[in-house]
Amino acid sequence: MTRICSFCILMLFAGSAQAQEIRPQEQARLDRFERLAGAALLEALAGGSDADIAALGTALSGVPQVAFDPTMQGEWDCRTMKLGRGVPLVVYTNFKCRMSLDNTGVSFEKLSGSQRTIGRIEMRDGRAVYLGVGYVANETPQNYADLPPDFEGSGTVTPDVAVFERVSDVRARLMFPAPVNESDFDVLELTR
């Protein structure tokens, strides 16, 4: 019962809070989400190793549930899967990520590995969307809201946008259409 009450209070606040502004560049990437995902998946399935294809299948399996739930809070294992742009599919090992709920959504951070990201997951047009900043481990990232309007990325700092789906209390995924560096589509698999 406490979990349900906490969830209802969180959704009440989230519904009344103002979501951060999305820049046109990231909105354009979101608008092409399905097309980019389809092309990248076809390339991954055609040229990825059997083990990597199996890992991708697991990461993308499961029906999305209500995006925000108090069970999301805390530490997660996370691994990146990069699809397309010269290499069909690359699956990395697990790193550490963290989610923290507040009254407007979820703060998210990839805490380890050489490529990291920090930002927020908020409801936008009926789906949970992540807006953040990707950066290499030795950089100090700024907030997404503070990025200059025309900033496309520097190679070490990039604007990130993704669709978030929670599959269960122990599984979720962030899916990044047209990431700035290295690939055509990324999946960040989250497990506990």
Low-confidence stretches: 1-16
The CATH first-level class comes to Mainly Beta
Strand content: 35-45%
Query: What is the arithmetic mean of pLDDT?
Result: 89
Number of helices: 4
What oligomeric state do the depicted chains represent? Answer: single chain
* N/C terminus separation: 23 Å
Class per helix and strand makeup? alpha+beta
Number of strands: 9
Helix content range: 25-40%
Widest sheet: strand ordering: 1-3-4-5-6-7-8-9
Q: Major β-sheet, in short?
A: 8 strands, antiparallel, barrel
Task: Compute the CA-based radius of gyration.
Answer: 16 Å
Feature tags:
192 residues, Lipocalin, eight-stranded antiparallel barrel, 4 helices, disordered N terminus
Q: Could you explain the architecture of this structure?
A:
The longest helix is centred in the first third of the chain and has 15 residues. The chain has a single domain, classed as Lipocalin (Beta Barrel), CATH 2.40.128. It is α+β, with helices and mostly antiparallel strands and 192 residues long. It has an 8-stranded antiparallel beta barrel, surrounded by 4 helices. The N terminus is likely disordered. The radius of gyration is 16 Å and the shape is globular. The protein contains 4 helices and 9 strands. The two termini are 23 Å apart.
Please render the helix and strand layout as text.
Elements: H1 2-16, H2 24-31, H3 33-47, H4 50-60, E1 74-84, E2 87-91, E3 95-101, E4 106-110, E5 115-124, E6 127-136, E7 157-168, E8 171-177, E9 185-191
Antiparallel strand pairs: 1-2, 1-3, 1-9, 3-4, 4-5, 5-6, 6-7, 7-8, 8-9
